[in-house]
Structures are given as structure tokens and as C-alpha cells.
Amino acid sequence: MNGNALIKNASQLVTCSGFRAKQGKEMSDLHIVTDGGVLIEDGVIKAVGKTDDVLVRFSEDVMNRFDGSGFSKKAPVIIDATGKCVLPGFVDSHTHFVFGGYRAEEFSWRLRGESYMEIMKRGGGIVNTVKETRKAGREELIRSGKKRLDSMLSFGVTTVEGKSGYGLDHDTEIKQLEVMRKLDKVHPIDVVRTFLGAHAVLPGYKGKEDAFIDYMIHAVMPRVVEQNLAEFCDIFCEKNVFSIQQSRQLLSEAKKQGLKLKLHADEMAQLGGAELAAELGAVSADHLLQASDKGIRDMAEAGVVATLLPGTAFSLKEPYARGRFMIDQNCATALATDMNPGSCFTESIPLIFALATLYMDISTEEAINALTINAAAAIDRADTIGSLDIGKSGDLVILEFPSYHYIPYHIGVSAVEKVVKKGDVVFDKEDDSMDSESVPFLL
Ligand code: NIG
Ligand code: FE
Fold first, then answer.
1. Ligand 1 first shell, C-beta below 6 A
2. Most ligand 1 atoms within 8 A of CB, residue of 94, 129, 264, 346 to mutate
3. Number of the ligand 1 atom closest to the C-alpha atom of 125
4. Domains and CATH numbers, the chain
5. What is the pTM of this model?
6. pLDDT at 64 over 80
7. Which of 222, 397, 399, 424 has its CA 20 to 30 A from that of 349?
8. Nearest to 166, CA basis, from 157, 155, 158, 177
């Protein structure tokens, strides 16, 4: 690994420039540079702008590094992006990608008319995955998690948020978070961890949800915090799962213990999750299919990022969240996959672009900001990733096309040719040697 790269001659450099979430009209601006370049040194962006200017900076750096006996640093990888569009790496700010087993049959049940919540009520859904995740060994979870991260990387994702929540007991919640910590170390994608111990009510806890919340607060959360296993705490605040009051209790305690807050809010029923997110100063509230007008306004005012997950609405055949209305209300809006084994089993960023632009009345420009700088803000990292700005991590994608318009236009197909993470090329569609199983083209 080198960490030094020079990208030059990009026909379109989409910087998404900024160090905080974009709101309302700001989301329409991509801060584009034509004939753009980026210089990355030791994994960090040192120059960004017109190719000519970046080249001047590059040659100054080369001169500075010449110490008489040779070059003190590794030579950068030089990428000629002529005819290509370059953007910040995508940030998938809401996933549940570490889990055991699959629930393919549930998808068929849903096609026959059963709802997600009905399946959950009769002991299926999340509880099913909990059983499999409890059984799964660490190695197995690391192996399957790594495969999913590889898939995300091919779509241009350079940072992902991952949640626990398929343990619902001390040991398995910790196991899931430890697996994510390991994956963060061994995989090019950065993994940001969220503790979601209150993700479902196991049959034994029906009617005793308060006791379950107490258990999470007193027996699990302190371990998570002590071992620095998560940065965020999340809860499934939903009718027939955890109430507003239970959510307030758990999240207030999480805040006291030093965790930042997220909520699965107002997904199936309008419970007031958006309002609660604003009240508690959550970093993001996610789903929001049923969020009220007031909840959306409260979030805009409190600076809570609205993270929309159109893949889930699509997969569950639920109405989409009101993305257009939220942006018009000045609410910082992010998009994410929600990758999980039940309600939305996909790592596909192109699918999210397609759904957001074609069904949610979100423009391509807004969708790109929603998957970069605003997604970074949804995991409290707008100061270090999510845009191509000096001082930020050298995470970017190079498309095989000259402009960002090709992203939703090539429907459901990834337009990403190369992915650069901290200055290293970590995915290259053109390079067969990067495939784990390369198949000879001509037999
Ligand atoms: O975000 N809504 C709750 N949690 C996940 C689904 C998890 C699952 O079904 O396994 C979600 O959709
Ligand atoms: Fe989720």
C-alpha cells in the first residue's frame, strides 16, 4: 500500500465540497471542476482543482521531497482520468451487513401478501436471523462480512456503517461488534459501528419490553462502551416493537454513556420517532416513511440528518419516504442501502440512485450529495470524508463515463470503474488480477 496518488485530466471532477451536511437548495450543488485533478499524499487529499494547478502543486512537492540521495517517499500512482468523471467515495451510512443465515423464503411469503410485520409477529423476521447469528462462529461472520464488503466496494462504497442487533443478548451483540471491528482492520472499506441491541423483542420478552431495555442499558451497553465497540446507539422505535418512551429511555442513557444517537424511526407507523430524534439531538433518524410534517420540520431545525432507505420501501412494497418534501423543508437528507437479510438484501448503490431519482422526486445532484457528504454527516464524519476537499481522506471513485449523469441513467448497473481508498487503488473493473477468481476471457 502506497497512499500516494495523482488523478489528472478528469473530464468532470465532482467534489461535493463542504465540511457539514448540505440542506435544502445546497443539495443541488455538486461543486464541479472541469478538467480536474486530485493529489493524495499519505492517504490525505493535498490538492484538488484544475489539473494544471494540481500538477504545479505536485511538482513543487516532488522538488521538496528530493533530498539529494533520491526520493524520500514512494512515487504516487498516476491515474489519467481523461473522459471520466471522478467523485468522492460513496458512504453507505445505514446497514446491517454482519449476520448469520438468510431469509430468502420470507421474500416469497411477502410476495404472496404477508407483511413484514405479520411475519415478525409470528416469530419470523429479525428473530430468525438472531437464531442464526447466535449460532454462527466469528470466522464465519468475518468471511461472509468480507464478501459483502467486497461487493459494496465494487459499487464505490469507501465507508460503511454497520449495526449489531442480531444478538439481542450480551455475547452475540459483542460478537457482532467485534467482527465489524476486525473487518474494519482487514478490509479497505472503513466500518463505523452502531450498537442496536434494541432491534426486536424476542418471544420470551413479549410484554416485558421494559425489562429488556433495562437489560440492554445495564448489562450490555456498558461493555460496548468500555471496549469502545461502537460509536452510535440505535433502536427500532416502532409500533409493536419499542415505544417512544422506551426509545427515549434507552437513547438518553446511551447519550450519558457517551454514544451518539440514531433511530429507526416512523418506518411502518407514525409514532413520533422524527420528533424524538430532534428532541434528543440524534445525529440521524432513518427510514421515516411515515414521518409527520412537524417531525420533519423539527429534524431540519435540530440538524438531524434524515437518512432515507428507498431499497427497503421498494422491497417491502411500502410507500417511499417524502424525500422531496424533506429537502424542500431544509432537512439534510442522506440515502443508504439498509443492507440486511430481511427487509432489503442488497448492497446496490445503483439501485438506490434509481429509486431515489425515479420514485422519490430527488434530483441526481441531490442524490449524489445524499450518498456522499450528507451520508458522511449521518455518521458524524462530514469533516473527514464525503467530499473532495483538502485535508480529507483520499477516498474517491472514477466512473467509466465522462459525467455523473450516467449514474442513474445506466439503470441498476454500476458505473464505477476504479475505487481509490486513502490514496490506493482498491478496486479496478479493468484489472483482472484484482478479481479473486479471474476467468480467462478467451478459452
Ligand atoms: O432497517 N426495521 C428494522 N430493521 C431492519 C430490518 C432488519 C431485518 O429485517 O433483518 C431495517 O429494515
Ligand atoms: Fe435498518
1. 96, 125-126, 129, 236, 264, 267, 312, 338, 340-343
2. 264
3. 9
4. 5-88+388-438 (2.30.40.10), 90-377 (3.20.20.140)
5. 0.96
6. no
7. 424
8. 177
